Amino acid sequence: MGEPDIGQLPIPSPKSEVASTDSEAVPTPENSSTPVDASPPEEHVPSIDTPTLAPTSPDSRLSRNPSFSGSSSTYQEDWDSNFPPLDRLTVLDLLDNFTLPQQLEKLQKGISAQTEKVRKSREAFNTKSRQARERMVDEWRRRVPSAEEQLDRYRKRMRNSVDKLGKRWNDTKAITLREKISFIFGVMNIFVSGYLIGGWPEYMHWWYTMQILYFMPIRFYTYHKRGYHYFLADLCYFVNFLMLLSVWVFPKSKRLFTAVYCLAFGNNAVAIIMWRNSLVFHSFDKVTSLFIHIMPCATLHCIVHLISPEHQAERFPAIYTIKHSPAGSPTAYANVISMLAWSTIPYAIWQLGYYFFITVRRRDKIAAGRPTSFTWLRQSYSKVWIGKIVLGLPAALQEPAFMFIQYAYAVLTMLPCSLWFYYRWASAGFLGVVFVWSVYNGATYYIDVFGKRFQKELEAMRKEVERWQGEHEGLMGGHVGGGEGTGSEKGDGEEGGKKVGLGETISGKGLDGRREGDNSEGSGLDHIPMLNDERPAAMMVTGVEVGGDEGARDVARERRQGRGGI
């Protein structure tokens, strides 16, 4: 089969295609009422369907020819005039269909949608802000009390404060049972110890042993409970342990007695001054601290100087041998060199044990905050020259420096121990000085520390009362009772036209002022509240009823006037 000659095939033109399509009846402005007859083509010519970009209807298509509207041209002429053939079609002809009004309309719709979205977001933000503001206002209203609630709270705080002040002075339960027992035992300890020293010195070591068996378990329990149990490894407790061994286990050991005597009269006794031990009877802790430092010295003074030689030779042969040995004999341990040498051995044992078992093995707990004697001395003497020297050293050298200073301090305190051993009155005088120093520390605590502490608390309470009164002055009408009263009413809270505030009343100024100008009310001491008094606190102090009943106030006024007439 031979292939057709493509070059000889007729190529249809747009006119012929349009002519074939025009054979159908198409309404025009001129012949819209009369159909057009068209004869069929004489020869069948195959046509190629070429896609066009023309609009579907003439009315919706825009033409580049301004004379299109209302013309009598046919569709064939319109095709020829407006749309070139495909081989001459350009991009501009394609873009011509996207008209500007459609783009503007689309842009306008996008702007309208964005505007609506912004409007809705703004409304949502305003709604949430309003709701948050309303919640904040409601929360503030719930938290801030009203004027009546503030006044009730003020009355309650005033009553509690004045009641606390009254209990501080009048309530015997402020001192606990333990402090009462400690006070009794402290006073009786001084009395019994003095009686035994003066009348029965041979029983002093019994009294010392009984007390140490009583004090030490309590000290161990309380210090362990408070986290102070590392203090129980200090030298003073070690000396008391050696004292018990020398008295009850090894009474014939001359070397042990020499070490105990030097450490007791040296380091322990002077520690009362260094550690500020004080004789405070109501404090069990302070009484115990003073006991473990001074009682070994008092006991050794009795068994060395006050008991008879016969009883000393029988009960304490080591003391009798040392005391009656001639100078230069092998048993004469009461010289300075022998005392320092034999006391250094137990001191070195204690120091090394303390360093390895406490400082090294418990370093983490000490760094976490557990106090020791080294940390306490470092804080207490940080502003003293010796403390500045130790703290100025590197951290690795501070502990060795502290141990060296402590040993030097122990040696200095043990130098005069030979004098205390051979001379009775020198030993008694030294004990008297140390004991008086502890009494002075106790007096300082009671007057300067305890008294000033209470005075500061009272002053702080007065300032707080004045602050409360200033804050609630508007609620209370300028004074506690509120409003203006008669002259007899003003006499309770004012004197000579001057208002007496609660702060001045607490501090005593208001009470002193009423002692002279208002004899009908009695002295200011009559207004100190009793524990069973159920009146409001401000009325108990100032004599003015806080927010009371008018009828009750009138009755009280009549009673005051009646008493004034009498």
Automatic annotation (TrEMBL):
It is found in: Membrane. Keywords: Acyltransferase, Lipid biosynthesis, Lipid metabolism, Membrane, Phospholipid biosynthesis, Phospholipid metabolism, Transferase, Transmembrane, Transmembrane helix. Residues 487-498, 550-566 have a biased composition (Basic and acidic residues). Residues 1-82, 473-566 are annotated as: Disordered. It is a multi-pass membrane protein. The chain crosses the membrane at residues 181-200, 230-250, 256-275, 332-357, 429-447. It comes from the Eukaryota. GO terms for biological process: phosphatidylcholine biosynthetic process. GO terms for molecular function: acyltransferase activity. Residues 18-36, 49-76 have a biased composition (Polar residues). One of its GO terms (cellular component) is membrane. Residues 475-486 have a biased composition (Gly residues). Belongs to the GPC1 family. This is Glycerophosphocholine acyltransferase 1. It comes from Cercophora samala.
